[in-house]
Amino acid sequence: MLRTRTMAAAATVAAFAGLIALPTPAQAAGSVHLYKIYYDSPGSDRGANSSLNAEYVQIRNTTGAAVSLKGWVLVDVANHKYTFGAYTLAKGKTVTVRTGKGTNTTANRYQGRAWYVWNNDKDTATLKRASGTKADTCSYNSTRVDYKMC
User: Fold this and answer.
1) Span between the terminal Cα atoms of the chain, in Å
2) Nearest to 84 by CA among 104, 54, 62
3) Given Cys at both, which of 72, 110, 147, 148 links 102, Cβ 3.0 to 4.6 Å?
4) Of 9-13, 91-95, 109-113, 116-120, where does mean pLDDT reach its minimum?
5) Please, which pLDDT band fits residue 44 given cuts at 50, 70 and 90?
6) Contact 25, 134 (CB under 8 A)
7) 46-70 burial by CB neighbour count: b if 16+ within 10 A, else e?
């Protein structure tokens, strides 16, 4: 019994000292959040649809239930907006929002743009709920890599 109390006390002290990363209440409950931004598609930025679709943002649902994203908005600093139509993101799943044109599926949504959205050096993605409240934000500031894990 004494050993159990000692280990619990040590874990508590370690957590407060920052040695153990305990989940925040929001992380423990799960969330719908930005997961990855692939902001610099391979090759030259000449506007080919395949290049536009290689630029994307992934959104992940870590809640215990499916979430309707109808009316949710993905926006960058320059105010390029993508608004979800009728779409439900299943629990534990990820959806990829691609810049170019294509046919929407459960795994991929397309903005239908003819030019790039995400800057190759720095930008900020913001995900807003249909109510307008911010669900998540993710920024990057690098030309050394082509993507950012949020």
Assistant:
1) 42
2) 104
3) 110
4) 9-13
5) confident
6) no
7) eeeeebbbbbbbbbbbbeeeebebe
Whether 62 contacts 31, CB under 8 Å: yes
Cα dist from 144 to 99, 125, 147, whole Å: 22, 19, 9
| C-alpha span between 70 and 58 (Å, rounded) | 16
Residues 6+ positions from 125 with CB-CB distance below 8 Å: 34, 37, 57, 74, 75, 76, 118, 137, 138, 139, 150
Q: What is the bridge-based pairing of β-strands 73-75 and 147-149?
A: unpaired
- Name the token pair of 19: 């040695």
